């Protein structure tokens, strides 16, 4: 990757270790970035995935695919790139607005309603209460959850959870789009809605990072790929070279 391109995001020797899980206060999420980061970290406290001495550079115009097996650290790196997880050591640099994070369903509070989780997710994305409330109707309409929005997330099917996460994340637009394993959600009709919205967002974003288990998603959409394993970068290269190594 040539340094002549415009560097917009960089991870420099980043290591992340999860803290022990503790309780959190939903109201405090609107007050403190540290509190938001702690909630996301605690939601993953029992997972083995972490990052170890990760160094990556992302350039304007890149569409980067991140691949790896379960527990490789793919979702963790997305959360660091989105700013909701702070590295234990190393540096994270970004000169762009990062707001979209499609792994929201990994830290929804299952005992809360879908509506309450809209507030929670918005706060985790750094939005104010006013900014969240301005988008609630649009989020609910796109998700097609209707009255189910008032029921606890734990009563939702996996498809309903993914639809809500997709609707929240794609309602808030930013320079950097991070897509974490939710490119195919819902039935055929809803997937077509998602594809149309994704096309619109991709035209606006200056950097796109995609996590997917689908080879076709990575090959058809990305100009570069990164292979992670056990929290470490195995290979950062062309899509074909990375996919050959990964498989």
TrEMBL record:
It comes from Vibrio casei. Residues 35-247 form the ABC transporter domain. GO terms for cellular component: membrane. Belongs to the ABC transporter superfamily. InterPro entries: AAA+_ATPase, ABC_transporter-like_ATP-bd, ABC_transpr_TagH-like, Bact_Polysacc_Export_ATP-bd, P-loop_NTPase. PROSITE patterns: ABC_TRANSPORTER_2. The lineage of its organism: Bacteria, Pseudomonadati, Pseudomonadota, Gammaproteobacteria, Vibrionales. GO terms for molecular function: ABC-type transporter activity; ATP binding; ATP hydrolysis activity. It comes from the Bacteria. This is ABC transporter ATP-binding protein. Transmembrane segments: none annotated. Keywords: ATP-binding, Nucleotide-binding, Transport. The keyword Transport applies.
